[in-house]
Amino acid sequence: MIGLVATTRNGRRRAAHLAQLWKDATLYPGKPSEALRGAWADCDGIVVFLAAGAAVRLAAPLLADKRRDPGIVCVDDAGRYAVALAGGHAGGANELASRVAEALGAEPVITTASESLGLQALDSFGAELGFEIEAGSDLAGVGAALVSGDTVRLVSDRRWPTGPLPDNVVRGTEDEPDENACESATARIVVSDRLVDEAGPGCVVYRPPSLVVGVGCSRGATEDEILNLLRATLRRAGLSGKSVAALASVDVKADEPGLLRAAESLGVPVRFRGARELAGIEVPNPSSVVEGAVGTPSVAEASVIAAGAELLVEKEKSRNATVAIGRLPVRGKLRLVGLGPGTDALIPPMAREALARSEVVVGLEQYVERIRHLLRPGTSIVTLPLGGEIARAERALAEAREGGSAALVSSGDVGVYAMASPALELAGEDVDVEVVPGITAAQAAASLLGSPLGHDHCSISLSDLLTPWEIIERRVRAAAEGDFVVSLYNPRSRGRDWQLGKVCSILLEHRPPETPVGIVKNAYRDDAEVSLTTLSDLRPEDVDMLTVVVVGSSQTKLVAGRMVTPRGYLD
């Protein structure tokens, strides 16, 4: 819940706007001190529409512990700045400041060192993956080393899609330390589900949600018996209970009170599967007694394997319960990112966020160079040449399949004549894929021309590298007969110089020679060129691969020098 506190007319107006815009926001009325105390007790974050000094004086008596205090964001009366005043990381004020700024058109002011340097904050590291910080971790000490540029050693059982880390973080494992990390490291970051490297001075330990526990039990098995067996089994195996992501069992136990309460106590879900499915899974310790009772020779071990986990601990028993433990595979992250055309201003916020959270960026060099300044420190860059679409997709997928986070970038929209299609053709269910849209080249060209896409339209690529010309020509004829506005991509290259002329002749069979045509080269770049002509006067030699040609329909017209395709509203 977000609390809103305001006293001035401008502040109340902006607070009311946020309360209407956000479902999780509540405006606290009354005097500022009373309103702030009320919000402090109820809310995770608070937006105070006051001068920073006044906000500090009001909040100071309420501050107790940064791990429990709500984050505070202060907005000036003019609505120009949203300042993360307190609780930047733990209280979520940094994120809230950005959210407020986006809603109000303000500028977020974030002064914590990690954000200022473009680094990940340790108290939110891996948060989206479900990492839990082990009690006693030295967040302040390791954070200071990270910001100061001291060598920090990252020790992890496996690779996780946590995003980029700066160059002063060197990677290794407990079994195979990184040669560069040893004596020079002043601090350590540990990501592990094993009970090793307990948190302490100079070390932060994260527990990933990597374990699944299969549970079989007799009717009436108690919560305490199940939890005691589980905890003893974890302890003997040297595994952390904080890494338990789920319990699993057979569906006939879906109403077993002790099992359900055990899961509730752990704060994890229980996943149930049918006895027939579990019975088909080969396990090391089947039981005919269990099969006679529930229809499958294994519950605990089979439930672990059915969850897709590697069986680490075979079943262990108490009087009324059995447990087995498995480790889940890491699912890497592939982000397919559209960068839009030309200027940075057209790179969507979603794309910027995706780039910031990806440890590897793959793409054509000309595209990667456009966004290099937006990448966080430590981001790896992989550029592969034009024509290597499949190789680029495979490289990005390989990074994700190893447990990493990769961004595969394209100009325009990644799903339009770009990298989303080949990547998704190759991607399976073993990685998470996020498609981040961008502004297409046709949209950018259209905006510079006026509104040529105001009615039905289509886009056709004239490149025959991947599509036979016969098919392209058939699609052009269909578009001509249907009287669509047509955006032509890849209209002409040095080795392909006749196709555009052929397309024009086909279109002229179905629409007037004076049909408006827009030619946009390098849209929204410093050397952008925009010109208007007609279908009969179009000169193919004026066009290249960096050009989008927009051919109007029979209804498209020029109004004050701008292409317009009417919607019909003025008829």
TrEMBL record:
**Membrane spanning segments where?**
none
CDD domains referenced in this protein's UniProt entry, alphabetically: Precorrin_3B_C17_MT (cd11646)
Pfam families per UniProt: CbiG_C (PF01890), CbiG_mid (PF11761), CbiG_N (PF11760), TP_methylase (PF00590)
Query: Part of which pathway?
Result: Cofactor biosynthesis; adenosylcobalamin biosynthesis
* Record-annotated Cobalamin synthesis G N-terminal domain positions: 35-115
Q: Which InterPro entries match?
A: 4pyrrol_Mease (IPR000878), 4pyrrol_Methylase_sf (IPR035996), 4pyrrole_Mease_sub1 (IPR014777), 4pyrrole_Mease_sub2 (IPR014776), CbiG_mid (IPR021745), CbiG_N (IPR021744), Cbl_synth_CobJ/CibH_dom (IPR006363), CobE/GbiG_C (IPR002750)
Record keywords: Cobalamin biosynthesis, Methyltransferase, S-adenosyl-L-methionine, Transferase
Return the broad EC class.
Answer: transferase
> GO molecular function, one example?
precorrin-3B C17-methyltransferase activity
Q: Does the keyword Transferase apply?
A: yes
Top-rank lineage group of the source organism: Bacteria
Record domain Cobalamin biosynthesis central region: where: 121-208
PANTHER family according to UniProt: COBALT-FACTOR III C(17)-METHYLTRANSFERASE-RELATED
The protein in question is named Precorrin-3B C(17)-methyltransferase
The species this protein belongs to is: Rubrobacter marinus
Lineage at the top is:
Bacteria, Bacillati, Actinomycetota, Rubrobacteria, Rubrobacterales
